[in-house]
Design goal:
Layout (H helix, E strand, L loop, with lengths): L1 E4 L15 H5 L2 E9 L2 E2 L2 H14 L6 H11 L6 E8 L16 E7 L10 E10 L4 H4 L6 H12 L4 E6 L4 E4 L3 E6 L2 E4 L10 H9 L7 E3 L10 E8 L3 E8 L2 E2 L8 H9 L12
């Protein structure tokens, strides 16, 4: 299921313009969310991040337009993984779309494999380093070359995903999610300032941790600190929480904090009678 809106007229839809700067220059942002019975899980957080990321690139998009498109796109019988892509729109050759007043919006709903959720994964440290000063580290832009290359390299070596360090040697994230590591009986997650994407599920857990009796702190974690890690897990909006069974050659205890799995299942097991409030 696919939808595209690409015109200065909000009501118009037409074939994709091959001059689009998202296609040619990766000038755009995207968001991936879980849809259950037509409801976007943690909708406000997802749309706020999408809008803020677009603003960081100077792209003019707002909640009203995205919500109007979602209202026409999603129905109660839809479940799966929704990707919303926003680009700065088309521009003539040699000219960057400086005004960015009429961005392109694409929406795509894909099937969800529930069997991937909560499954343990293995990580290999990537040779590619995250630049903590870059917009592409702090915002979910279309510039995903490093993520793709690191993921492919890890897969080729028999690992499920790659582990990124930043240019200072601190742990950041995987190619698809945020990390939480258990060190000295405390769950630690790297700070955004180290080049970490502010994931929606990361922010949810930081807010819900005390209610779930999970002690979490935000601190820089060096590569040497990995020797003190007892357990770890990755979070994103589709896989939810994946215990990490191995980092490089070091085996870990693949477990999640108590109550986290049940809390995530409750959060994402909506039905047509249990709806989250939408944005206005």
């Amino acid at each position: 299921m696919f939808f595209i809106e690409q015109s200065s007229e909000q009501s118009a839809s037409r074939p994709f313009d091959l001059r689009d700067q998202g296609l040619l220059l990766a000038d755009g942002v995207f968001d991936t969310s879980l849809i259950v019975d037509g409801t976007m899980i943690l909708r406000m957080a997802h749309l706020n991040r999408l809008i803020n990321d677009a603003i960081a690139l100077g792209i003019a998009i707002d909640h009203r337009r995205i919500n109007a498109l979602l209202a026409n796109f999603l129905t109660e019988d839809h479940s799966g993984v929704l990707r919303i892509t926003v680009t700065s729109g088309p521009a003539e050759r040699r000219f960057v779309n400086a005004k960015r007043a009429f961005p392109t919006v694409l929406m795509n709903l894909s099937p969800l494999n529930r069997g991937d959720q909560f499954e343990p994964i293995s990580l290999q440290t990537s040779l590619i380093r995250r630049n903590s000063t870059s917009l592409t580290s702090r915002h979910k832009t279309l510039a995903y070359t490093d993520n793709v290359a690191a993921f492919r390299s890890a897969q080729a070596e028999g690992y499920d995903d790659a582990l990124f360090l930043n240019t200072c040697g601190n742990i950041c994230c995987t190619t698809i999610g945020n990390l939480f590591l258990e060190i000295d009986d405390i769950w630690v997650t790297p700070p955004i300032s180290d080049g970490v994407l502010p994931g929606v599920m990361r922010q949810w857990l930081l807010g819900a941790g005390s209610d779930l009796d999970i002690k979490i702190t935000e601190e820089s974690i060096t590569a040497d600190d990995l020797q003190s890690v007892k357990s770890a897990f990755m979070m994103n909006s589709v896989r939810l929480a994946a215990p990490i069974r191995k980092i490089n050659a070091r085996e870990l205890e693949p477990r999640l904090p108590e109550r986290l799995k049940s809390a995530l299942k409750a959060l994402t097991s909506l039905n047509s009678q249990t709806k989250q409030p939408s944005d206005t």
